[in-house]
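Page header: ASSEMBLY MODEL / two components / 702 residues total.
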Amino acid sequence: MSATGLKSPADAREELVTLKHGAGGRAMRRLILETLAEGFAADQPEGIGLAAMDDGAALRVGDRWLVVTTDSHVVHPIFFPGGDIGRLAVAGTVNDLAMMGATEPLGLTCAVIVEEGFRRAELERIHRSMLETCREAGATIVTGDTKVMGRGELDGIVINTTGVGFADAVVSDAGLRPGDRLLVTGTIGDHGLALMARRHSLELDGDLRSDVAPINRLVAAALAAAPGAVTAMKDPTRGGLSSALHEMAEKSGVGTVLHEPALPVRPVIRSVAEMLGLDPLHIANEGKAVLGVRPDAADVVLAALRAHPLGRDAAIVGACIAEHVGRVILDTGLGRRLVGEVEGEPLPRIC
Amino acid sequence: MSATGLKSPADAREELVTLKHGAGGRAMRRLILETLAEGFAADQPEGIGLAAMDDGAALRVGDRWLVVTTDSHVVHPIFFPGGDIGRLAVAGTVNDLAMMGATEPLGLTCAVIVEEGFRRAELERIHRSMLETCREAGATIVTGDTKVMGRGELDGIVINTTGVGFADAVVSDAGLRPGDRLLVTGTIGDHGLALMARRHSLELDGDLRSDVAPINRLVAAALAAAPGAVTAMKDPTRGGLSSALHEMAEKSGVGTVLHEPALPVRPVIRSVAEMLGLDPLHIANEGKAVLGVRPDAADVVLAALRAHPLGRDAAIVGACIAEHVGRVILDTGLGRRLVGEVEGEPLPRIC
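Prediction written out in full:
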């Protein structure tokens, strides 16, 4: 509101929800803190609750933690190279549980909202994909809900999956300490670019496929390799590795330095991203994690990751520093520059 | 498919999802069993899982049960007399937990999908309503998710809430036994008719307001009044009391007889329903439960319900019989007739 009491165009814009508010970046975090989480802080139980804005909640149950995580999936198109909305939903929820240390899901819920006129054959295809992905993850769907909206009231289908699982020790996204090494479990940028290519019908030589996969067993192997040595985890989905690292660094009170030559990026991803003017650091992944690991355990954890089929491209890509809190610094080998924190994922409905 | 290999018009219709598949009745149950639940049965953990199609799942954790329940809310309009989508979401999930015996929610998740251009002021109003309803129920939201879909891709807003809570003893919707009394916790038909009146801008003398409310504490009082005497519970939402009773009777292997003069129906509901050619038995409620109670405990449970502000209109409305399995028989005082099981709720997007 201006001093005259009249609203500026900027004020007017802020009165409406825009696509950036769903993009996984700063705009979304502001909307949640200012609107959706407000007032609940006082009522939070022991553990990690709403205000932490982690991948889920961790609630004290006896001497263990019950991890709970929820995601709605609005991806477009619903079938894409390497996956579909069903695989994305199951993997997304299994991975969010794993990011907090619950690598054996107790159960998932599945709430489907379908547009009138949706083809049952497509629903069956999505269902089969969910069943297969659950079996890969050792998970199952224990309850669900079905709603139908009228024609034109919903673009096809959206799926919410919520997961519960126990963790003996919770790993948050806020535990990085100076000196910790930063590991990624594989190549970055694959999911977002596969979606983008499919949506814009780009004709490409290389094979662009989403990396969507449940990585709970990969994460379990990393955690078991060096108990207590993994200080923080996050899956770099919307907003990519950059968004995940900015959030982790800010919450942990550290700075991060990435060594660009160490970043695993497939050549086709690098060239397509360059063609489109995008940075793979900003592009969503759906089968990857970034881990903070105590320096003396980094090699052991890396070896455990690489021994798993989903972690064969894992790499130590950087380290945490005490300075430049909340920043992500890219060391190109020739010099250093700040990685910008974008508002969020450049593409809407990526997941 | 006909013998000629050509599809009949009926086959063609069955290839598409229609509004009836979201109406909470037989069509929806068929869709879920044939498509969405298929294949998961083999993977279910100990307890009540997907195949039971109860209000949620109950998973064995030590000597207790972890109850998990999920619902997406697509109600239209989002603000209606007596409530809004936020109150509906919280109450719906709290009540589903309570229906399985988990009357003290451990935590709820809240996943919001918003259409681009949605007004932030409305989001704030929904948020306040969720906060207030949580406090009424002694519940809180522990984690969430926010997605934005483009203009025209979603009609406004949908909200998924998933809840977790512990129960020492699980109450299913399948435990009715011959002789059990059937109790409802209050008047029926209020939610659905309030929605219908609001949507069609009916001008009415009487006050039509939704009954949407969290009834976990009411249910806790009933359970505590006569431990072990409540044999089954269900909240009569989509499809109304008729749909809930048909499902309970079928799963329990009993018949049910309702005494029409005993059914609590507000006069305004009775007259508006008559005017619209609807039966209050088929209309959705959002702050009520139907309970099966051992006959010797029915009066004690009734007294406990009536002592609570949300149960003052509670009534014993019928009983279970060994014959007419899966049926709902209405005793009008002058004679008996079968209550038809409709395909589901007559109005789309009721919850």
